[in-house]
Amino acid sequence: MAGLIERYLPHYQFAERHALRIDAPAGRVLDAAQRPDVADDPLARQLIALRELPSRLMGRLGAPSRLQGRGSFGLADFTPLGRDGDREIAFGLAGAFWQADYGLVPLRDAAAFEGLQRPGVAKLVLNFDAKPAPDGSTVLVTHTRVHCPDAQSLRRFRPYWLLIRPASGFIRRRLLRRIARAAAAKESR
Questions:
Q1: I need a labelling partner for 31 at 20 to 30 A (CA). Which of 90, 102, 141, 189 fits?
Q2: Domain with 59 in it: what CATH number?
């Protein structure tokens, strides 16, 4: 059976994968992954603030900036695509990510994400795949996939990906550790 990530983004040009064994059952691990406080990492916020700094400064100096008056980028910008029991959860995002303001396209739901086909707009799926281990632990894998629908968006996204991928991987690995701590803390309560 294909998972949510396969359903929503079977074709992609860019991918990233990270995994961590967590001493908790899969359902508890995925519950922890969906908690907003777990995704709200202070260091990730600082990296995002650094990425957004030029556009926000330009806005303060009177130049156009679509980031002015808007909160920092975060998991709240993603569209929930669904949860498959204790196996997987997925989130989608669409935009011209290489732009200073991310060029985000608002999507009301998973159907809107699935149906979006717009030149110049890349689609991204972030998932968490929970694989139960025989010892009762869970191997949590996070995948990030990006599909650029045309040559122009591919040309624009490629250098951006090379620039942000190290920070993205760093954030994903920290997120896995935060999920592990949250799942373990829930067990000890």
A1: 102
A2: 3.30.530
- Residues 6 or more apart in contact with residue 55 via CB below 8 angstroms: 65, 66, 67, 100, 101
Which structural domain, as residue segments, surrounds residue 15? 4-188
Res 189 pLDDT > 60: no
Instruction: Count the alpha carbons within 13 Å of 74 in the hemisphere toward its beta carbon.
Output: 18
Give the pLDDT mean for 108-120: 96
d(CA 93, CA 99): 14
Tens of pLDDT, residue by residue over 43-89, are 888 888 888 888 888 878 878 777 777 778 888 889 999 999 999 99
Give the tokens for residue 43.
């260091």
In three-state form (DSSP H/G/I as H, E/B as E, the rest C), the secondary structure along the chain is CCCHHHHHCCCCCEEEEEEEEECCCHHHHHHHHCCHHHHCCHHHHHHHHHHHHHHHHHHHCCCCCCCCCCCCCCHHHCEEEEEECCCEEEEEEEECCCCCCCCECCCCCHHHHHHCCCCCCEEEEEEEEEEECCCCCEEEEEEEEEECCCHHHHHHHHHHHHHHHHHHHHHHHHHHHHHHHHHHHHHHC
Q: Work out how many domains the chain is built from and give that number.
A: 1
Beta bridge partners of 14: 146
The token pair that represents 95 in the structure block: 């935009």
Which token pair is 23?
Answer: 């001493």
